[in-house]
What we know:
Blueprint: H1 4-8, H2 18-34, E1 37-39, H3 42-50, E2 54-56, E3 59-61, H4 64-73, E4 78-80, E5 91-93, E6 99-100, E7 108-110, E8 117-119, H5 122-134, H6 155-163, E9 171-173, H7 178-192, H8 195-200, E10 204-208, E11 215-216, H9 218-229, E12 234-236, E13 239-242, H10 250-271, E14 277-280, E15 282-287, E16 292-293, H11 298-313, E17 318-321, H12 332-348, E18 352-354, E19 358-359, E20 364-366, H13 367-384, H14 391-394, H15 396-402, H16 412-421, H17 433-438, H18 444-458, H19 466-484
Parallel strand pairs: 1-11, 6-18, 7-20, 9-10, 10-12, 12-14, 13-15, 14-17, 17-18
Antiparallel strand pairs: 1-3, 2-3, 4-5, 7-8, 15-16, 19-20
Amino acid sequence: MRANYRASQSxxxxxxxxxxxxxxxxxxxxxxxxxxxxxxHEETRQILTDSGAYVDGVRVRMPAVMIRQALATAPRSxxxxxxxxxxxxxxxxGQGRISYGPxxxxxxxxxxxxxxxxxxxxxxxxxxxxxxxxxxxxGFVESLGVINDVRPALSDSYEFAEMFPNTGKPIxxxxxxxxxxxxxxxxxxxxxxxxxxFELRPNYIHYCEPLSPLVCAAEALDKAIFAATHRVPLIFxxxxxxxxxGPTTMAGVLVQGACESWLGLVLSQxxxxxxxxxxxxxxxxxxxxxxxxxxxxxELSLLSAGITEFAHYVGLPVWSTGGCxxxxxxDGQAALEGALSVFYAGMCGADLVHDVGYIEGAMTGSLxxxxxxxxxxxxxxxxxxxxxxxxxxxxxxxVAEVGAAGNYLAEEHxxxxxxxxxxxxxxxxRQRLHDWERQGRxxxxxxxxxxxxxxxxxxxxAPISEATGKAIERVLGLAEAREKYN
Length: 486
């Protein structure tokens, strides 16, 4: 069928030409050969040395062939599975398949009932997971915060333990280091039915970050090594801030971000070729007036589109950003910035789009924002389906039957197609004015709040197994003991 979405699974635009993408690749290989990265991890430096890298102190440089070999073995497509065995909740990563989800580690949270800004608590992790589980356009789960009411060093383990029973969707997990990664993995493996079963059907992704510019700390590499050796799908994503921790020019940011992400790529493919790997990153600008990372800036969408096309050019899936805002509340600015970044990410074909629900420039997580962006994602998905052109959709026979001055409301052709051709909003109001007034003159934010409260009150996620419940108790008990004596 001659349709864009048939060939690509979605409607997409192209920002960069193939010649430009080739230049970005050559520039990135040049940076790795001539500049390199400071790698603060002796084991990683030895692994890279044994594979042909040049090491001088902590500075590591890699020949282009090492990176090309890693690109050749990393898979472009793979699946992260629903822990409840529901194919509709699997995240299938591949050309033209886009999944959206929240982000992690905001220090603050908008209370889902009072909408007051406060520290993020343990109970919030389960609430976020439950809401993500219920929203149809959210594909994967992160926490929207970092837990403040447990031992700080254990907030990563507690977060996963709270989220895992409250959603059947795959989780993108993070940890402070290898001990948290082991806690998370033990819980996930218990539900999967053992390590071998997990490798066949992984149910979570692990998220690691290098530091910009061109540095990687030991903790990130401990986690990357753990993920690769246990065949956990791995995201290795920098947060390059243009004008602060990266070049001011957009092309320079793309080169530096690729180089930083590819350290994790090469390491994972050396340890276990074929390990699922997702290239990042979170890329935006430093607002030179306020001196903050701008999360609602148009440059975030522009850079995200660039990193998406660059990742796909070299054969890797990409971790992108959208559905976020610099607004401090759920207002017109939040809707505008969030919806535009969701749309841009969808149109450029990013594989995983995170930070949906971030407000205040990633300082605060908001479930109300997440619910509102679920509506925006639904609109973008409908647009991305494109237009099917065939004998049935051209409707020539129906047009002839209705003729001039008729109407199509009662036509069989209309009944066959309107549910698929039309998008039906869940939050947006298309009512006539008098009907809207009679039903309370509600705003978009109020309708999002009503839907949020209904989910929190009534949604029931699929239960975890008894063995997984016991594993969670054991993991948290051992983690508490470990931290007590550290």
